[in-house]
Each structure stands twice: as C-alpha cells, then as structure tokens.
Amino acid sequence: MEDKIFDLLMYSIPAIITGGLAYFFFRDHMSNEDKRRRYLLHKDAQKEALPIRFQAYERLSLFLERIAPAKLLIRVSPNSTNKEDYERLLIMSIEQEFDHNLSQQIYMSDQCWNIIIAAKNTTIQLIRKAGLSDKVTSADKLREVILTEMMEQESPSSTALSFIKKEVGDILNP
User: How many whole angstroms separate alpha carbon 60 and alpha carbon 113?
Assistant: First the structure.
C-alpha cells in the first residue's frame, strides 16, 4: 500500500509542478496580451485625437493673438468718442472671442486653460484700469493709454502663448 501511495506521489508531484508552471506562464502571457491590446488601442486613439488637440491649441493661439491689446485696438475701432462705450466694445469683443473658443478647453491641460483664462482676465483688467485713468477723456485717448502701457510691459497674451508653445513642444517631444 505504501508503494502505491509513493508511486502516486511520484506521478502527481511532477504533474502538479508542471500544471503550476503552466498556470503562471499562461497568466503572465494573458496579462501581457491585455497590456499590448490596451497599448494598441491607446496608440490608435492618440493618432485620431492628436490632430484635434493641435487644432485646439491653434485656435486658442489665434484667440490670444486677437485679444493682444495692440492687435485688439487695431481691429476694433471706436464707434464714438465716448471712452466708456469703447471700453465696453473692447471687453465685449474679448468675451465673444472667448465664448467662441470655450469648447477647446477639453483638449488641453487644466493648467494651460487656467493660464488662458488669466490672460483674458488680465487683458480686460488692463482695459478697465486704463479707462479709470484721469488722463483718459475720449476713446482715442483710451487707445493711446493702453498702447503706452503695453510698450512698458509684456502682454498677458504673449505670456500665455509662450506656455501654449511649451505645452505643444512637450506633446511633440515627450
């Protein structure tokens, strides 16, 4: 009887070891296959999403260029000599441009989107601050004061545009 138990163990132990090894190899193989499939799906999704992301960065770069005070003042002419009307017109133009590009935020990082919002808000504050100046009595004088301030400092748009360029560079060269 002991011989039969010993023989049974002699046959069972190699079978159990072989079965265990097969199980671990098969499990690792399935895990690797799953990772490979996920990688290929991710790669395909990136291939389709990357051009859309770059379009979003392009559109927001254009937005930043359009709200840069020097370009905004050239593009949006005053309708009258009233400085308050011109101030509202400039701010309304910025807000309309922003609203038009609002959906692009889903294609970029939160940090980049927040910098773009900060550039927009800073530009609006710059216009409002210039409108509050005692030197400003007309729409033309408002334009002059804003342009003078922009010569002394870098525009918020150019700062945000630099960040966009950096982020796009990081996407292209990870």
Answer: 9
Q: Is 5 helix (H, G, I), strand (E, B) or coil?
A: helix
Distance CA 108, CA 164 (A): 9
Pairwise CA distance, residues 138 & 12, whole Å: 99
pLDDT in tens, 45-94: 667 778 888 999 999 999 999 999 989 998 998 888 888 999 999 999 99
95-133 burial: b if 16+ Cβ within 10 Å, else e: eebbeebeebbebbeeebbebbeebbeebbebbeebbee
Q: Report the alpha-carbon distance of residue 158 to residue 18 in Å, rounded.
A: 66
Give the pair of three-digit tokens for residue 48: 């389709």
Other Cβ atoms less than 10 A from the Cβ of 11: the count is: 10
Q: What is the DSSP string of 53-75?
A: HHHHHHHHHHHHHHHSHHHHHHH
